[in-house]
Sequence to fold (273 residues):
Amino acid sequence: MKHELTHARHDPAHCLAPGLFRSLKKGDRKVSKLDVLYHYGSVQLQFKGPEPLGVDDLRVLQGLVALAGPSGILLTPSPNTENGRKVRLLLELKGEAEKECAIVAKGSYGSLAREIGYEDNGDSRLIRQCIERLWTVSIIVISESRRHGFRLLAQYVSDDRSGELYVALNPRIACAVLGTGRYTRINMEEVRGLRGDPARLIHQRLCGFMRNGERKKITIDKLCEYAWPDACSEATQRKRHQRAREAIDELRQVGWKCEELMRGRFEITRPSR
Fold:
């Protein structure tokens, strides 16, 4: 199967925020909420939502960000094309969003599923649930005395009859996609090659602060924090160490170099692509 998406230009703060995405057990979404506060440089971001975000949501967001590159539609407040006017009308942008430029990922549930590596290309229900869960997440960005609020996904609309899907990305991600702000590059071939939840979570965190070809020394405890940010017992930590080692093996399989310098301490090198 030929895949068209090669990479995603993602916002580093969304990649690095501890606990924004996590490996969830059955029933976690019924009893937990999302409330993550993260300091990125001089900026503070607070993510809040009625449900925690899992690895399925992480994969869908990565795919949407990747789609917004080659298939994205840049919407100015007054589009000068018929397609632009149609998309702005479909999205029903209101309030401050009416005055801002937006970047919209255009595709379908099926194409998005294929590009992020789902085996069942036609499971649009799962993709739809993830998009709607991402849409419920609000973000407050605080920079000095200025506060700015928006949703993780600014707006979305889909048409089951035509199969079309339009998702407007939030301002921080839009700046990353356009290259007007800082961004981290996530290789979509690697995303499609990973299988386990810990591997996907660790991969995005590493991509968030490592450039192509860069190497870092990282302990296995730190890698575990990327996948499971909550404290645990010694017995659970031993199980997490084992799963983190399995994630390291997956990283090796998609081209990363992971050398264990001593027990529990690794030198990890991101591929030069």
In short: Residues 232 and 240 are 10 Å apart (CA to CA).
